Amino acid sequence: MANTADVIVFSSSPNRPRSPARIAPDQARESIALLRSTTPPPPPATKAKPVKPPTRSRFFATEGGADTHAESTNQSNKRVTKKAIASIGQDEGTASKPQQKAKRSTKKPASTEPGDSQAEDANTEANAPKQTKGRPRKTTKNKASANMTLAGKVTKTSGDLPPKTATKRARKTTKTDSQTLDEEKERPALEESSALGKDEVLHLDEALRRRLDWTPPRETLCDGLTSASDGKSQDEGIAGSNVTLGFGNLLSDYNYSGNALSPRDLIQNSISEAPTKRRRIDLVDPLVQSLLNGKPDSLEQTPPHGHGVAGKTKKTANNKPKKFTTLTARMTAQYAINDGDEDEAPVEWAPEIKATKGKRSKAKEAAEDFRFTILSPEAAVEFVNDQDLVFGTCSQLEREDSPETLQEMQQAIRASETLAYSEGISNPNESSAADAMQTPSARSVSKLTGSRNLWCVASRDTEGSLIQSTAQNVIDLTHQIESPLNGPENVKPALHKTLSDNWYEQTFTDIDFTPEKKGLSATMSEGGSTSTKSTSTKSTSTKSTSTKESQASLSSHPPAPAPAPAGDGKSKATKSTTKAGSNPANTVKDQAAGQEAPPMPQYNGFTDTELSKQVATFGFKAVRGRKKMIELLQQCWESKHGNNTSGCENIDQTGEGKAPIPQIPDISKSTSVPKPNTKAKNHATTAVADKSPRTKKTVPQSRTSTQPSPKKDSRVQIKPNSFIDIEEIQDSEEEITPSPSRVQKYHNDITSRNQAGNGAAKYSLDVLTKTPPQSPTKRKVVSSKTSITKKSSSASSTSTTVSRTSKSLERVCLADISTKITKAVRTQPRSSSLGSRMHPTWHEKILMYDPIVLEDFTAWLNTEGLGLVGEDLEIGTSSVREWCESKGICCCWKKNASW
Amino acid sequence: MFIAVETRSDSIGGANFKGQFDEYQVLSGLGQPEIMDGPEPKPIPAYYCCYLLRSTVRHASLYIGSTPNPIRRLSQHNGVAKGGAKRTARDKLRPWEMSLVVEGFMSRVGALQFEWAWQHPEKSRHLEPDEQSQAKVNIDPKTGKPKAKPRSRARRSLTAHLEDLHSLLRSTCFSSGPLRVRFFRADVYRVWRAWNDRVDSRLPPNIKIILDGDNLATVPNAKQTTELEPAGCINNLSVDYTRLEDYLDKSMFMLEDPEDLLCTVCKKPVAPTTEQIVVCPHLECRGTSHLLCLSSHLLDATGEPDLLVPAQGSCPLCKNTVQWSTMMRELSFRNRAEKEARAILRKREKRLRKESTSETRSVPRATSIEPRTQLEEPAQDELSSNWFEELDLESDSDFEGRQKNHSTRPPSNLEIVIEDSDWDDAELVE
Q1: Chain A nearest CA to B89, separation (Å)
Q2: From B109, B306, B331, residue closest to A851, measured CB to CB
Q3: Which runs of consecutive H residues, i.e. helices, occur in A158-275?
Q4: What is d(CA A516, CA A532) in angstroms, rounded to the nearest whole number?
Q5: The pLDDT of residue B102
Q6: Which of A826, A890, A894, A896 to mutate to test the interface with B (most CBs of B within 10 A)?
Q7: Which residue from A154, A155, A176 is spatially nearest to A165, judged by alpha carbons?
Q8: ipTM attached to this prediction
Q9: Where are the alpha helices (DSSP H) in A658-785?
Q10: How many A×B Cβ pairs under 8 Å?
């Protein structure tokens, strides 16, 4: 009976299918939802299908084969009927259509009237057997259509139906609502009757025309489900039904479902269900928020939310595509796994999803079992801190496009523009790009080499001298310290110690442990590819975080990201620990040993003059070329001290100086060598300082070494704890208040510093005295302009405005140069022979308000002038012009000098 | 024309100098003809200004130009003389007036740069640092137009020009120079004042604002004798080196016989022929010093190590305040345009002689006022009266090759066609 009713409704609908359909959906939804919920997945699909056929969906090709059959058979008839007969008549006809034309004709008269329903019912019943004979799908669809139609009819004729409708109808409607399995059984028959749906198909032409512009939803789900959903979605009224389906999912989604969160699930969801995209984002948010809130435990809680959002459909559980379509998916994949582990409890919450989840959750649980170790709150906090979350567009996620890199790029561009001698400086972008390019696995080695060179070039000052990373760190540290203290974050001093201990353990685990990591990562992400991806993402995230941190001026990561200074110390410790067997004491010893052996000076940070001096001290003739000098110095230093220091350290140093270190451990060692200083610095300064040091250290050598080390550290830490990596969402804007993680890191740094010992402290002190404060963010790009960066950092508590910093940096650079130029001009000896009248000095020209010809002046500066001041720089005319203008000196180009 | 001279001689205390002048003449005859050619840079111009030209008919029509001789230039704009800018050639808009001038440029290049920057505020580097401050005052309440950087190059309002001027004068490049802004029109000055009140930052103190023209209750009757003093009108501006003639006379006289002269700073003998010797501008002071000695002396006094050019200081000998720009103008003129310097001195001497004779005749001193420029016109010496104009032949040209006919200018003295820096793109509003 329901079928008949359905038919009628639809028949009437074709012209105006929407109204009935709309009404119908409500009921249909209910029925469908009920069916689904009650019935195992397959039945619901069948039920869902029926919904589609009702009106438009049938017309569309999207519908199942049954529809097509019906259409093919009936199309001719339908067309005729449609054209000739009034809409109502057609509708009825359509209802009966599936079966036979004759039926249609007979039905037609009754169509609009309520009484028709009975006749229709009869027809439907008759039809039902046929359909059942046909494909099951058809039946299901028909059923659905019947249901739909029933709903529609009910609504339409609501008044009429209850009394008039045959028992079947009433039953069906009621039954569907009740969702009893029995009804379902019955329904198939009714659905079969859905031949009416075929009739509806007759209207295909019109519908097609109507819908030409309309893009039907893609069929992603299993045929049954998808088709049903599609059909529903296509029809507006039906859409409601879809929604209902979706609603079921939605509810479940909101519940914590342990399964769904995996990235694949997300993807699937997105494909199958419209709302998915949003959901993905939502998933992330809670995690981030929790991180922001600084609740270490929040991670556990948050993941479930995320999973729940993802909403696990059975299908998702079944079909887990191993590809990640989007970067976000990839990124989230890591976390998803974790979530799943943690999500177990949440899964229970969502009973609906249980079936699908159950399998998954079990598997996950198994995986979790080894991973999951309950961490002390401090450790947990640490974990959280260490986790780097990267969110953003693909471009952003790619290393280069991170806000920091963008800023850097901008800065670099500016610098290059402003400074004529920018030629020498390699593009920071390139370096960053190279970093991004490197895959996680390849990263350690290749990255080091490539980036290093770039950084070496980039680390030069505007003047062409290298920035001294050490000095920079000091300033930052102070700044950082202040910020964390000030920060509202809950920093618990006691926690620090504990954290530090934990941290040591974590850090001590070698990078070499990668297998573990891999295992973890693999467990996290089921696909091997995912594991690599996750690692890569982690690394990227760490980088991004570092950038964030630097920007924020709060350095959260003590161990990993901090490249040279902070990171070095930690990495060193970690290495030593690993060697020693992950004993903190051993690590301490190692550190002490490292301290004893004089760390190789970071020649990259030296200015040219300093380098030349150093070269001279080694008894070498002055060498042209900074690089050569550095290499030479490194070699000398190695020959001098290298043997004394632990072999690994020496190697590392050499590796840093000359070539990329292939082995990760080596890298860490290398980083460790310089580290003591950095560590001490870091300790002195707050956690913020740590981050800044990284960026600072980004100077070629340090950077290369540091980058790998951070990865290792992060991995190691993560694995043992089995914490899910919660990444903070990096915004281009820096956080004013340090995130809890950062604060913790800061504490950790402090603790580590303490451990490092006095020697490190001394180093740090030296560094401090030498280096002015730099802004962390700018360091990388502007590393050459240490003084500038320092100023900027000090000036701006939070490095919110990149532009400002860049400007300030430029200014600082210019200031440095300009003071030198001024000095040079004023120290130029008077020309004794011919007299100042014939050959006035530049100062005399300036004093006499002569327009200064930039080319000549620059040439003089580069050949003589700066040499007078002891500077061996090449200055461009543009910077000279800036100097002139800043002094109010009239300058012009040679071509205009004749004015 | 002589009146001005007389007043000047009075101020100097001519009696004392007469004898010197005689000597000077003699000496000048013997003078060393050592004049630097070729690479020798031009002397600091006696006068160079950027001006804001405004149509008296239509006040919205504005024009920014630069010239070493605003008197001549104004007549060109008004069609009295040849060579006016195209933009100002429209009869409807004539006559033009110079509503304000920015003077005190120490080089033609500087003036042209300033002019260009003023004309193209949206492109000028000098205005960039001011952008922020401008952003604060983003909207001009009067015009209501946003002051966003990408200003159209279309005609801009007086307020906008004054804003730009203000920013330029505050820019690092021009703020340290000895610039002065001379307002000839009261209404323009009012707008300026209004803008000054609106802008957060103030002009650097070394930039003087001079009220002139109808800003003055009483129009000064005579020629301007010092840079800072109001002239009353454009024609009274002293735009040549005659302002310096007394100073020049003194210094040249002193340096003719340098044997006794010691640098006031380093106490070493000075060699005027080979060294840059600065002479104290105070006529009674006989202080001479090396350029670098004096500059370092003055710079040290300022206590600013980064400073390269002192704005002013006290003479180590007479302790009077000396303007560095004045000394440099004289020095450069004396060293680099010796011929012209001598010509001026000769003229001056003649004048003085005439005065003396006229005085003996008891002729009233100030009988007529003639424009200053005419002083030079009676060419008395081998030096053509237009030497300075020749120097400045290109003076009105545009910055950066905007001038069209550099080479085509007729060099003849009679018709000096000076290409003005036309603001080509700007449009006159009709």
Answers
A1: 26
A2: B109
A3: 161-164, 167-178, 181-193, 195-202, 204-211, 223-234, 236-254, 263-272
A4: 13
A5: 92
A6: A890
A7: A154
A8: 0.75
A9: 664-672, 675-684, 687-697, 700-706, 708-721, 740-756, 758-770, 776-782
A10: 105
Measured between CB atoms, does B36 come within 8 Å of chain A?
A: yes
Task: Give the Cα separation of A748 and A682 in Å (integer).
Answer: 10
Distance CA B420, CA B398 (A): 7
Q: Does B173 sit within 8 Å of A896, measured CB to CB? A: no
Predicted local distance difference test score (pLDDT) of residue B35: 34
Question: How far apart, in whole angstroms, are the C-alpha atoms of residue A629 and residue A620?
Answer: 10
A815 touches B at CB < 8 Å: no
pLDDT at A375: 77
| A808 in B contact zone (CB under 8 Å) | no
Q: Return the pLDDT at B200.
A: 80
Q: Comparing C-alpha atoms, which of A560, A598, A562, A591 is closest to residue A577? A: A591
Q: Where are the domains of chain A?
A: 2-238, 256-372, 399-722+740-795, 803-896
Name B279's bridge partners.
B288
Amino acid letter, residue A438? Q
Q: How many distinct helices (H) and strands (E) make up chain B?
A: 14, 9
Task: Kindly determine whether residue A888 and residue B397, on different chains, have CB atoms separated by under 8 Å.
Answer: no
Question: CB distance from A892 to chain B under 8 Å?
Answer: yes
One-character DSSP codes across A510-522: -GGGHHHHHHHHH
Q: Determine the distance in angstroms separating the CA of A777 from the nearest CA of chain B, rounded to an integer.
A: 23
B101 vs A: CB within 8 A: no
Stretch 819-848 of chain A: residues touching chain B, C-beta under 8 Å = 819, 822, 825-826, 830, 834-838, 840-841, 843-848
Q: Is B288 on the interface with A (CB under 8 A)?
A: no
List of residues 6+ apart from A96 with CB closer than 8 A:
A7, A103, A104, A106, A107, A120, A123, A127, A195, A196, A199
Round to whole Å and give the CA distance between A308 and A250. 9
The vertex-B150 CA angle with B149 and B152, nearest 5°, equals 125
pLDDT value at residue A36: 46
Cβ-contact A793, A500 below 8 angstroms:
no
Nearest to B306 among A819, A849, A890 (CB): A819
Low-confidence ranges of chain A (pLDDT < 50): 1-200, 221-244, 260-275, 282, 284-285, 295-317, 338-359, 361, 363, 366-370, 420-451, 468-597, 643-728, 730-741, 743-744, 750-751, 753-804
Min Cα separation B175/chain A (Å): 7
Domain boundaries, chain B: 2-31+244-340, 49-240
Confirm or reject contact between B37 and chain A (CB < 8 A): no
pLDDT higher than 60, residue B302: yes
Which CATH superfamily includes the segment(s) B2-31+244-340? Zinc/RING finger domain, C3HC4 (zinc finger) (3.30.40.10)
Interchain contact A497–B (C-beta under 8 A): no
Residue B281 gets which letter from DSSP?
Answer: S
- Which residues in chain B have Cβ-Cβ distances shorter than 8 Å to A814? none
A275 vs B259, which has greater pLDDT?
B259
Which amino acid appears at position B124 of this protein? S
Residue B133 token pair: 């401050």
Token pair of B315 as six digits:
């003479």
Chain A residue nearest residue B112, CA to CA: A899
- The pLDDT tens digits of the residues spanning B215-246 come to 887 766 666 677 778 888 888 888 888 888 88
C-beta of residue B171 within 8 angstroms of C-beta of residue B126: yes
* Contact assessment for residue B269 and residue B258, using Cβ atoms and an 8 Å cutoff: yes
The per-residue DSSP string of A709-739 comes to HHHHHHHHHHHHHTPPP-PPPPPSSPPSSPP
